[in-house]
Amino acid sequence: MKKLHLFVIKSYVGPMVATFFIALFLLLMQFLWKYIDDLVGKGLEPVIIAELLVYTTAGLVPMALPLAILLASIMTFGNMGEHSELTAMKTAGIPLQKIMMPLIFLTLAVSVAAFFFSNRMLPYTNLKFRSLLYDVQQKRPEMQIREGVFYNDIDGYSIKISGRDYQTNMLYDVMIYDHTSDEGNRNVTVADSGLMHMTEDKTYLVTTLFNGHNYLEMQDRERGPEPTFPHRFDRFEEQTIIIELSGFALERTDEDLFRHNFQMMNLNQLMHHRDSLFRLISRQTDNYLTRMLRTTIIRNDPGYSGETDLVELEKKVPFEIFPLEENMSNQDRLAAYEYAVTQARSARNQINSSKTNLDWQIRHMRRHEMEWHRKFTLSFACFIFFFIGAPLGAIIRKGGLGMPVVVSVLFFIFYYVIDVSAQKFIRENVILAFPGMWISSFILLPIGVFLTYKATHDSAIMDIDTYINPVKKVFKLAVNNNHKEPTIINPFDEKKV
């Protein structure tokens, strides 16, 4: 039995390691495709790029590990089923549960290691990755200017372009607002095209503009009865603007600036910040309700102590206002209505403002709750994907990278779509964090139990004939009933007569 367990483990470890690194590589290529504009053309040292890729790879483990376990388990049991090794083990009286037992313990150990990685290592790598990526993005400001959006990260300047040629780095329809004098939009430069590059010491941004004009509003120094607005308008074919830069060289930012993000926290820190946010939301809600009662609903009442008891509130609020109107003149009644409308609008604005603030606080708290549950869902997903992949491989009995890859990708996409949709509902405060973060695992858990049961009883659920044969039988029976031989009655038969 020990040799059998070693054989199963050896058959499983190899595909698992291979598929894990393949999944990491594919996810890493997705990251490079997304952030290629932030990395190319900035003169980054190979050490910086390697450090960034290492931190990125560590952050991709939560997605790659469950996919690797699912694919490896399907490949392992599919290969053993394809080469009749499972059949030989079952013929020898070894049930599927005992064959899976060493891999169950191995998957359990991987799940526990994944939990400690998610709780200890992942916050550290996320902190390193976010801070380093921020420093890389700020190194070359001319590469961060997007089409159709004002770029305001350079102090004293606001820059906008409508197009860019990434091969020649030519900018088109350049508009530069000079705010260095702190006098508003008084100095504007517009050009058809231009080039930008940083000096070698990374201290100046040299901008060469072509075919444009400069508009400058000049201050009127003469005082007269009527104000005048002098300005200066210059046309140019080529103009060079030198902008002084500060802080755009690759200098490592203090990591404490990113430490309070929910992705950089462990379980204890997440729970502490979540409780702090919950108390803050409760305190803000009580303060808002008390303020509304004192300033809007009950005003100038010396007997009101600030308590928010609704029973006492109903006794104090004069809901019947018609007897009061009878003793009022039209002017006083109109003034009272206008005052009431003003107070109602003010209360509505306060409600909307407070609601916006509370919604933001609640969404921020939900993010901490989501990250807290994510530490556990990663480990649980690894365990569930094994119980889906192992029996599924024993059923389909196909190894290699053909059918297992297709089935694994379909299951993983199904899991990922449900998880992403649930997270969106949590962020919008539609559902709570606990059911939202666990719903994908709870949906896949019955599938794993069902597949394990079918694989134990040698059910051919992946054989298409299993589903076609009953249909054929029903169709054949219906055809036979419609084509019965007719009964011929002999009119000369004495028995019938």
What secondary-structure arrangement, pairings included, does this model have?
Blueprint: H1 2-34, H2 36-39, H3 46-59, H4 61-82, H5 85-91, H6 96-137, E1 157-160, E2 163-165, E3 170-178, E4 187-198, E5 204-217, E6 231-244, H7 267-297, H8 310-316, H9 322-325, H10 330-396, H11 403-427, H12 433-456, H13 464-482
Antiparallel strand pairs: 1-3, 2-3, 3-4, 4-5, 5-6
Helix pairs in contact: 1-4, 1-6, 3-6, 4-10, 4-11, 6-10, 7-10, 10-11, 10-12, 11-12
Measured by DSSP, the beta-strand proportion falls in: 5-15%
Provide mean pLDDT, rounded. 78
Low-pLDDT regions: none
Contiguous helical run count: 13
In total, the number of strands is 6
Main pleated sheet: 6 strands, antiparallel
Total domain count: 3
What fraction, in percent, of the residue positions are helical?
A: 55-70%
Q: Radius of gyration, Cα only, in angstroms?
A: 36 Å
Order of helices and strands: HHHHHHEEEEEEHHHHHHH
Distance between the termini: 81 Å
Give the overall shape, derived from the CA principal axes: extended
In terms of structural class, how would the helical and strand content be classed?
Answer: alpha+beta
